[in-house]
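$ fold --in a.seq
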Amino acid sequence: AIQSIRDARQNLAARKTGLANMIEQQKKFAHLFEAHDAYLNRAANDLLSTYRSANMHARTTPAPAHFNATYSLAKSALPASALHAGDAHADVNIETADATLKNAINQVNQKFEEAVGSFHKIGEFTSGGGRAEPTASA
C-alpha cells in the first residue's frame, strides 16, 4: 500500500514538472507570437512605403496626407489559457494532494504498527501459557 502511495506521489511530482514545462512553453509561444506580430507590422509598413514611394513618383498631383502616416495591423489577441490562468490554483491542488498522500502513508504506517503491537501481545500471551477467557457471546 505504501509503495502504491509513493508511486502516486512520484506521478504527481512528474505531472507538476510537466505542467510547469507546458506553462513555460506557452509563455515562450506567446513571446514568439508577439514578435511575429511586430514583424508583420514592419513588413506591412515596408511594403506600403515602397508602394507609396512609387505612387508619389508617378503622380502629377500631390500625395494625400495619409501617405505620411504609418500603418498598424489590428493587434491579434492570444486566447486566454486555462493553464496560465490556473497556474497558482494548480500548485495549491498539487500541494494539497501531496499532503494527503503523505498523510495516507503516515496512517498506513500507524495501522501497521498497531497491528504489529497486537501480534506481539498475542505472542506474549501464548508464550506465557495463558488461556483466553471465553467471551460473553461464546
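$ fold --in b.seq
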Amino acid sequence: MCTVTAICPPPSCGGAARPLMRLTCNRDEQRSREASIGPAFRSLKDRRAVMPIDPPSNGTWIGANDAGIVACLLNGNPARGPGARRGWPERLSRGRIVPDLLAADSLEAAFEVACEIDADDFPSFRALVLADGRHFVAYSDGRSIHVTEPVPLGGPLMLTSSGLGDALVDPPRRALFRLMLLNSPDVLRSVASFHAHRWPDRPHVSVLMSRPDARTVSRTIVDLHADAIELVHRRLDDGLHPADGNECFRLGFNRTEVAA
C-alpha cells in the first residue's frame, strides 16, 4: 500500500539545489506492522545502495544505488471477483525485489533483471525503476509479469495502491494529482503538498491515509542529481506527523565515493 510520484523539475524550479529527478513515496501499512529501520547502506554485488529496511522481510520497498538507479515497489491489490485468490501461500517476500533491481549497473541491466522475475514467486506488485531521466514499470498479477520498455519520464508520474483495492483509491488520488500538478509553477512544492493531502471526510482513500487498521507510516524522498543521490526517510506517528526524535535521515553518495 503506497502512493508514489516521480517528477523531473524544470530548470526554473528549485534554483541551484534543484534535483534532476525526485521520487516521493508515502508508505501505507498495517498499524501492527513493525516500523522501518534506517536508511542503511548495503553492498549488492558490485553496487553500493542505500535503503530503509523493513524488519519482517529484511528487505525494502524503496532505495537507490551508486549507479544512479532508483527503485520503488508497491503491492498489487486487484479487484476480487468470485473465487479470487485471498492469500499468497508459499510466496517469497516482495522485499527482495528492490535489492535485486539495485544490484544492476544500468537501467538496461535493471530492465533485464525485472524481465527475469518469476511472477509465481511473489504476490502481485508494481515496481517503478528510474535513472537518468528515464523509467520503466514492471507489473505482476502473481501469475504473469509485464515490463514496459524504458522511456523518458516526461511529465509527472503517479502510482498508487491500497489494501482496500487499487481501483477504489486510484481515481480520486489521480484526479487530485492532476489538479495539483497541472500547470503548477513549482512542481516540487506541489508534489510535497500532494503527499501531505488529506480529505477530512475520506481519510481511508486520502494520499496521507488513515483507517482503523492501517495508516501512512512513512514518507521517503529520493533526489537524483548529476553526481549524487540523496534519500530522506521520515517515519510518521499516529497523528500522521513526523515522529519525535531523530526520525529524519539524509544519506547521500556520488557514483564513485560513498559518504553519509
